[in-house]
Amino acid sequence: MASIVTVGSAVLDRVYTLTNLPERDGGAFVTDYAERAGGVAANVGCALAALDHDVGVISRVGDDDAANTIVESLSDHGVGASRVRQGDGASSYTLVLRGPDGDRMIVAGGDSVPQLRLQAGDRDRLRGADCVFTSAYAPDPVVSELLDLHAAGEIDTLAFDLAGPIEELEGRGTAPATIDRLARSADLFVGGAVAARSYLGTGPRDAAERLRARGASRVAVTVGADGAYLAADELRHVEAVETDIVDTTGAGDAFTAALIDAWVLGDRTGASAGQIAATAAAQNCTAPGPRGALPTREELPEA
Hints:
alpha/beta; nine-stranded mixed beta sheet; four-stranded mixed beta sheet; 35% helix
């Protein structure tokens, strides 16, 4: 299959299961706690490896036990971790607050990923890849350099996930001017409805149309249980796949990985790729964690 490199966040998820997701000035009680490896770049990489691709991750961890958990999980999923560097201090992390119905809120922290910078060996690996994926949680100098390599023809295909609202990215992720460049040139531009609204100030359907008009080759704006809007030659709405939800963490990453496989690297139409991606996202919601039930190729529809 294809050679793919994902660049950016590989972190430790500290997951608190709550009696309820609190409202502003409200409260909740912790009923369970778990630690799992996560991060958008790592999750997308693991999901692509489950689809039989040759995947490597470029990221940065700290000098702590969390780093071991993060790297070992990549290896357990068949993802190359030789370009995951270890630095001083604590590894980056997320606090995942999970409600009883599987909905969640996520708060990020830590400096290991924001300090990531590309090295010569990283660039060699990127030049040899069929596809490179990154997200807005990768630091701006890294994403800017990926764009430069793509513009120079040294990266063949570049996929990007907006991942979070603009205000969340300030000082640690991709800057708005760089996101503007990605909107003009990415081979795949993905974003959730909240992230898209923070960037463009509009709803998901209009956001998909506007991003496609700006120049991104393929666009997907996800809307959770309401599916997703996909735009390339035409705009399509894809319905979400119903399932018994255990945990929605990582659903968007599974969706993105399946889109890369079917739509960017494969020969599927937008409608067909969207159906496959919606199935992948739904399956991953049936078990705890961002990689709880990643589908194999045989478990996804042929449509």
